[in-house]
Amino acid sequence: MDIIEKIAENRIKEALEKGELDNLPGAGKPLSFDDESFVPEEQRLAYRVLKNAGCIPPELELRKEITGLRQLIDTIDDDRERLKKMRELNYKLMKLNMTRKVPLNLEDFQLYEKKIFEKTLG
User: Is residue 47 within 8 Å of residue 77, measured between CB atoms?
Assistant: First the structure.
């Protein structure tokens, strides 16, 4: 055990003895891990640090926007407006796909794919 680990262990023991770790939010509940399967393994730690700091990486922000657009498209009755939002969604999907080493799996967006196919057929 190196010196930093010993210091950390001592501080944790002191905090436990003082009761500083009692009644913490989520105490006694299982930990909730976010799905990070779409984040490259070598970037996951950095993304977690950014998330804890209240920052969202650009790829995650884009994915959040894509999800919001998909939900919005389902509520639009005007064909022109829906087509405009579908084009915006297509652009964001392409942009997300370009930032990834592995192409975006369209199976995650089956509803979108189906609507484009229907629109293409007339």
Answer: no
